[in-house]
Amino acid sequence: MSEEFYRIKRLPPYVIAEVNAMRAAARAAGEDIIDLGMGNPDLPPPAHVIEKLCEVAQKPDAHGYSQSKGIPGLRRAQANYYGRRFGVDLDPETEVVVTMGSKEGLSSLATAITGPGDVVLAPNPSYPIHTFGFIIAGATIRSVPTTPDEHYFESLERAMAFTVPRPSILIVNYPSNPTAETVDLAFYERLVAWARENKVWIISDLAYSELYFDGNPTPSILQVPGAKDVAIEFTSLSKTYSMAGWRMGFAVGNKKLIAALARVKSYLDYGAFTPIQAAACAALNGPQDIVEKNRQLYHKRRDVLVESFGRAGWEIPAAKASMFCWAPLPPALKHMGSLEFSKQLLTEAKVAVAAGVGYGEDGEGYVRIAMVENEQRLRQAARNVKRFLQSKGVNTASDNKVIGG
Question: Which fold has domain 6-44+289-391?
């Protein structure tokens, strides 16, 4: 028998998991690790959402198999959300599918629409599922940049001109994970026109739609007239409602892609636990205070992170959106590379971050910092970082300043 499996052979070591294992071992040994590595919200969902989960879970008939594409009420709730938030009309029956988080939805769609011989355009750096979901399905990845500028569209044109076979799918993710870059509606208008001209499907990951900080709400690609002819979009309750562990997401948009996703899912799963889906309805249909509250929370944490780390001697660019800052390595330590830097920061400063190289080769030289600890812990992390930098001989500009309280 073969000891090498086709899909496993196509997967490199998961760099992010290496640092995660080190963090877990340190915590198991009793060390106080400030975890800014994983994008794992540290606050609970709204009380009325938890109450709905408990209420429905007590019903005797709520514990059987659910519906793979989502219960009708939840699909309607998601369609209503798109109507309120983006002014986009969706048919809950043919243009909405409930997924077990965006990650499962993206991987199931990759299984549904790609195979060996297909070429997918994916951002580099990118969240791993954006590439490896399609690699697992057998497709080939051609990288394009994340920066939404003229160079981006030049890269798309080169990819179409010089790739054989021609790419059939483009993945976009704004606000970006890990880079936190954002786009406006004009960008999507140009992208949809390009996709229609080149007969390319667009897969948009909009998981951070509600975490924007500068007063400009994040747009949806589906706001562009005709976008549903070429695009499908994924969203999630994970960050908006602090429901990451509930694994509740959605795919909406093009009917053909939605049907393909729903068909594959019908073979793979029976859908999320019904009480969780009912609670997700309560999140979408109920009071929306938490959406603004979480936006303000991450905005404040961003400001504290940028200010305190800057005073510690590490300049961090201020993210415009998402729950992450995409930080270049301190210039004096750039030679370490992002993985070694992350390891030493963990072992010596007790601060966990995610190595940029784990998001693609163009992520080298950066780390992703998640704003998932409170302001006091962020300032504590900054103090630890300052001592770490000084131990490496870095001349911090704030030697005589106190970082936070």
Answer: Aspartate Aminotransferase, domain 1 (3.90.1150)
